[in-house]
Amino acid sequence: MWKTAMPPALRDRRAAAGAAKKALLLALLVHLFGLVSVPEYKIRIRAVEERKIETLELPPELTVPLKERPEIPRPVVPIEAEDDVEVPEDVTIAETILDAETVARPVAEPPPMLPAFDQFVPYDSKPEFIHYVTPDYPELARKAGVEGSVSAKLLVGTDGRVLDVRIMSGPKIFHDCVRIAAMASLLAPAKQRDKPVAVWIALPYRFTLRDAG
């Protein structure tokens, strides 16, 4: 009996079908092995823990009274009178009297700017003393026989008054006496182009027992 040759296409189909069956069988075996080998899971139920919840009493509600808005009067709108309205002849408009002194009063100039401490201000003529006040000798220093020299810086304003005093060096026992004497002194202010300017000047104060009296 003669066997006819199988076409290649049919042979490939049969081979593919056989491979698919083998793959399916292998997948079933893997799933079966997984079901057998996986241990059994047990569900554990934990005991329910009871917790007490404390309730807090809320404070009573506060009511803030609303303030009534003040009634604002509506602005008066002038109404133009009609032509046929009669105006009494005795109605007059009050005269406006201006105060001549108020009208002619000049605007005050702003105060001059004071220089910062130890700031140099150029000037043509330096301040000169009109009234120099000698500081008192402290009684405690006189009894203790203390002598010394105090260096101070004075801020002289545009009116010649001493506006500030800074002690630079010297025995502390003399500082208050120097400040009092410097603030009581009066000078001719420094001038720049004939205009007074505020400047800082350095001034020494010497304390000797011979001058203490």
Can you give a write-up of this model?
β2 and β3 form a beta hairpin. The protein is built from 5 helices and 7 strands. The protein has a domain of 85 residues: TonB (TolA/TonB C-terminal domain, 2-Layer Sandwich). 25% of the residues lie in helices and 18% in strands. The longest helix has 30 residues.
Write a compact overview of the structure shown:
By secondary structure, this protein is α+β, with helices and mostly antiparallel strands.
| C-alpha end-to-end distance | 165 Å
What is the string of SSEs from the N terminus onward? HHEHEEHEEEEH
Which architecture of the domain at 128-212 does the CATH hierarchy give at level 2?
2-Layer Sandwich
By DSSP (H or I, 4+ residues per run), the number of helices equals 5
CA radius of gyration is: 55 Å
Task: Briefly note the structural class of the backbone.
Answer: alpha+beta
Percent of residues in β-strands: 15-25%
CATH topology group of the domain at 128-212: TolA/TonB C-terminal domain
Number of strands: 7
Query: Can you tell me the residue ranges where pLDDT is under 50 for at least 5 consecutive residues?
Result: none
Q: What's the CATH class label of the domain at 128-212?
A: Alpha Beta
Mean pLDDT comes to 81
Q: Biggest β-sheet, characterized?
A: 3 strands, antiparallel
Task: Report the helical percentage.
Answer: 25-40%
What topology, given as strand order, has the largest sheet? 3-2-7
Overall geometric form: elongated
The CATH superfamily of the domain at 128-212 is TonB
